[in-house]
Design goal:
Strand order of the largest sheet of chain B: 1-2
Order of helices and strands of chain A: HHHHHH
Largest sheet of chain A: none
Radius of gyration of chain B: 25 Å
Helix content of chain B: 55-70%
Largest sheet of chain B: 2 strands, antiparallel
Order of helices and strands of chain B: HHHHHHHHHHHHHHHEEHHH
Shape of chain B: globular
Number of helices of chain B: 18
Radius of gyration of chain A: 20 Å
Oligomer: heterodimer
Structural class of chain A: mainly alpha
Number of strands of chain B: 2
Structural class of chain B: mainly alpha
Distance between the termini of chain B: 30 Å
Strand content of chain B: under 5%
Shape of chain A: elongated
Distance between the termini of chain A: 48 Å
């Protein structure tokens, strides 16, 4: 890990092309990785809580009474596909194809929004069937864990739409494609966490 | 809050940062001197000073709370405080000292020193740095506003659920704690990301990881611990918040909720937190001792690796806070062993400090006294800590004053001694004048005496069986004499803090001007003028070795004796006007303060169930973040 030459005349705000840092990664990217490390512990603590409380509710309704696993599988598939469109968006902006970048970013946001809409529908139908956050331990841990994830997806959508608006104003060029990559890191992380949550919450009987 | 403080560096003319092209509606503030500029500053050194002043103010508040507690306990059947007030004060004392004093005081040193020590011009994200500070100030103020809004938190700094659930704590007291700590968590986490990126990415040419000053290393480990430990308590607080506000059942035993879950989550955070508190102070002591022993730090690499080892092992010992819960013999045995084991890297550090002192030409200046005091007091605290690894002994001592004695020996005898030494050591670099060594020694000896008078007897009280967190005790329990001694000791500590404040005032008036390198230091911050200029380095340093600055001044002859190099480094200099014009530093910004302001607004809105207010807070936060993202930088087309 040896040193570099000129970066230190302008601290983090090196605008003359790529960042020159000790690790070779930009400050923004290292920061996103660090933040995602922190997020792992947030989700880890929530998932542990859910696992600890599995099967410990003293009253119903219980998971087997209300889950619609085919429905949630479809919405999970939608979310996972959004990672594919995210990759395509990054590839487009790295090629300098700003129009396709916008198309794929918008597609990613729409897929994410479909997932969130599916979650809203799922929550609504569960509440109709008599499961609220207050009902039992399952209700508390289910809504807080999946809702926490849903908020993350929503924030991701906001970031994606911000990127689209930057691109429309011509501020998201090939040279600045890294910001797409960094938002992509977040987006993929949120997707990967959903794989764990889907398995733990829905699939493990 | 007295956070606006004019540094001694201020000139009468307003200095402006390099102009931002563009401007328009989103024009960034330009002034970098004057009272108002403190609200928009993004200079890591001024933010460091803000952290220092604010956390010292909280230290005085937490100290006053401690004095009230000690007055109540001075005699049996005390009636200075009601039981309810006693609960609020010990809760606020603990919460304050952990979250509002030792953590941010370490952040003050880390902010000020890390860029200087690694040869950088600022931290990686200057505006995020300001945001962390404002979250800390506003989160702390939010917590303290509880005293005026119906009563302070009263569930202990550990806030065990379900005692803190709505059934047993129906008032808003605990809500202040739940939301206040979440805001402070935002401050610590963003600060941790920032400092980690800074240390990993922004080192000067030649400064490899194993040439980083030990303080930077210990802070780096502490920041990683912060990054990974804070989310765990955040989730615990989050669950408790859902229980209290929305009727969830996480800690409701009637619905199958498990109170032990809270304890696990809290202590999985709580034990790494102990190392978050102590590692930066260990780093400070490891900087002070080599300078005043005129020897390199003994076993630098081992010091680094033992610090990292503490960082990893700190995650595997949390259950020793829960030995009396009844987790069964296997859990207790495993955590007993891991607790004994973590004493090894800590012991390694103590022997390394002793090895550094051994054979050195020692100068007992005030910072050195605090550093040596640290070693002695921390060793006592460490040893009583090892006794807690023995679970039968631990069960005997659980919830007695023995535990209070133990953790004050590590957190006061350790962390605060180290941080206080850091004040005396770096004061000249920060403010350009020395603190009086004579008054400093009076401060040290009173502080040392008062500390031992207060907390030494608590070992005995605990062994005699005096429980902690009781607001009074009956006569003829054998507790009277030692409690009186402890109370007297507490007031001696208070006196020593007054002496420190007098020292600050007198030294400021006398202005013994500090040279750039008053202690004959070893690290890069001593290679620039005192007080440090806002751009830090006129010339970005080229680093060739550990203790770079020392090796520019000294070498060893054939028999290993220290000799001054014939050619000394040039006198530290300020940058010329032309050089200053070429140094690009980002302009100040309004938005970190505005964004941080959104958080307490959201918190008040949530806890009083005025959700419109909470939405307003969220809008402030989000709008400020967007404005921050799109405001022009000091340079065109820049993003951060």
């Amino acid at each position: 890990m040896t040193a570099t030459t000129t970066a230190h005349d302008d601290t983090a705000h090196d605008t003359h092309g790529a960042h020159v840092t000790n690790t070779g990664l930009s400050n923004e990217k290292v920061a996103m990785w660090a933040f995602l490390g922190s997020e792992c512990l947030l989700f880890g603590a929530l998932i542990s809580t859910y696992l600890l409380y599995r099967g410990r509710s003293v009253s119903g309704p219980l998971p087997k009474d209300i889950y619609d696993i085919p429905y949630t599988s479809v919405s999970s598939f939608v979310l996972l596909m959004s990672s594919v469109t995210m990759v395509l968006a990054l590839a487009a902006v790295q090629r300098g194809d700003e129009r396709r970048n916008r198309v794929w970013l918008t597609a990613t946001a729409l897929l994410g929004a479909s997932f969130v809409a599916g979650q809203v529908y799922e929550f609504t139908s569960f509440i109709r069937e008599g499961l609220t956050i207050k009902t039992n331990l399952f209700g508390s841990s289910f809504y807080v864990l999946t809702g926490f994830h849903g908020v993350h997806v929503t924030l991701g959508i906001v970031m994606l739409l911000s990127l689209v608006s930057m691109s429309l104003r011509g501020r998201l060029t090939k040279e600045r494609s890294e910001v797409v990559e960094i938002v992509g890191l977040y987006w993929h992380f949120v997707d990967v966490v959903w794989i764990v949550i889907f398995t733990v919450v829905y699939l493990i009987p | 809050m007295t956070t606006v403080l004019e540094p001694d560096t201020d000139t009468t003319d307003a200095v402006e940062a390099p102009a931002a092209p563009g401007g328009g509606l989103m024009r960034r503030p330009r002034r970098i001197t004057g009272a108002l500029s403190w609200f928009t500053t993004i200079d890591h050194k001024r933010i460091g000073i803000l952290y220092g002043v604010t956390s010292f103010t909280f230290f005085l508040l937490g100290g006053i709370e401690a004095l009230l507690l000690r007055l109540q306990l001075a005699r049996p059947n005390g009636n200075v405080l009601s039981a309810e007030m006693y609960n609020q004060l010990f809760t606020m004392h603990g919460t304050t000292m952990v979250f509002l004093v030792v953590m941010p005081l370490s952040a003050a040193f880390a902010n000020y020193l890390i860029p200087l020590m690694i040869g950088a011009r600022d931290v990686a994200f200057p505006r995020l740095n300001a945001f962390s500070y404002w979250c800390f100030l506003l989160g702390g103020s939010f917590l303290y506003s509880s005293f005026f809004l119906g009563g302070a938190p009263d569930g202990g700094w550990f806030g065990y659920a379900p005692n803190t659930s709505i059934t047993f704590s129906p008032g808003h007291n605990i809500d202040f704690w739940v939301f206040g700590l979440q805001i402070l968590g935002v401050a610590s986490t963003t600060g941790a990301v920032n400092l980690i990126v800074t240390a990993l990415n922004m080192r000067a040419p030649g400064m490899t990881l194993l040439r980083m000053p030990i303080f930077v290393w210990m802070s780096l480990v502490a920041q990683f611990l912060t990054l990974f430990a804070l989310p765990v308590i955040t989730i615990a607080l989050f669950l408790l918040m859902f229980d209290r506000l929305f009727g969830a059942n996480f800690f409701n035993p009637g619905a199958g909720g498990d109170p032990v879950l809270w304890q696990h989550l809290f202590w999985i955070f709580g034990h790494p937190e102990v190392y978050i508190l102590i590692l930066p102070a260990m780093g400070i002591v490891s900087e002070i001792i080599p300078v005043f022993a005129r020897k390199p730090l003994f076993g630098y690499a081992v010091m680094v690796f033992s610090g990292v080892a503490i960082g990893f092992m700190g995650w595997g010992v949390w259950v020793h806070h829960m030995f009396s819960v009844g987790l069964g013999p296997y859990a207790v045995s495993a955590f007993s062993v891991s607790t004994m084991f973590i004493a090894v890297p800590t012991g390694v550090k103590i022997f390394n400090w002793l090895g550094t002192l051994w054979g050195g030409s020692l100068r007992f200046t005030t910072p050195m006294l605090f550093a040596v005091g640290f070693i002695a007091m921390f060793t006592i605290g460490g040893l009583s800590g090892v006794t807690h690894a023995i679970s039968p002994h631990d069960r005997q001592q659980t919830d007695t004053y023995y535990v209070v004695a133990h953790f004050h020996y590590v957190l006061f005898g350790g962390a605060l001694f180290g941080l206080m030494g850091g004040f005396y050591y770096w004061w000249p670099k920060v403010f350009g004048h020395m603190l009086s060594d004579r008054i400093g020694k009076v401060h040290f000896w009173l502080w040392f005496l008062g500390f031992n008078l207060t907390f030494g007897p608590m070992h005995i009280l605990g062994l005699q069986g005096m429980p902690r967190r009781i607001d009074t005790y009956a006569e003829k329990m054998g507790f009277d004499a030692w409690n009186m001694v402890a109370t007297v000791g507490a007031f001696v500590i208070a006196l020593s803090v007054l002496v420190f404040l007098v020292n600050v005032a007198v030294s400021r008036k006398n202005r013994t001007v500090a040279t750039a390198d008053p202690w004959d230091g070893r690290t890069l911050e001593w290679s620039i003028p005192s007080p440090s200029p806002y751009y830090n380095f006129a010339d970005v340093p080229q680093v060739h070795s550990l203790d770079e600055w020392w090796h520019r001044k000294y070498t060893e002859d054939d028999s290993g004796r220290l000799v001054r190099l014939p050619e000394q480094p040039p006198e530290p200099r300020l940058a010329t006007d032309e050089e200053v014009a070429r140094i690009h530093l980002p302009s100040p910004s309004y938005f970190p303060l505005i964004a941080a302001f959104g958080l307490p607004v959201m918190a008040y809105g949530m806890m009083y169930k005025a959700y419109a207010v909470a939405v307003i807070g969220a809008v402030i936060l989000i709008a400020a973040i967007y404005a921050w993202g799109f405001e022009p930088s000091a340079e065109p087309e820049e993003s951060s």
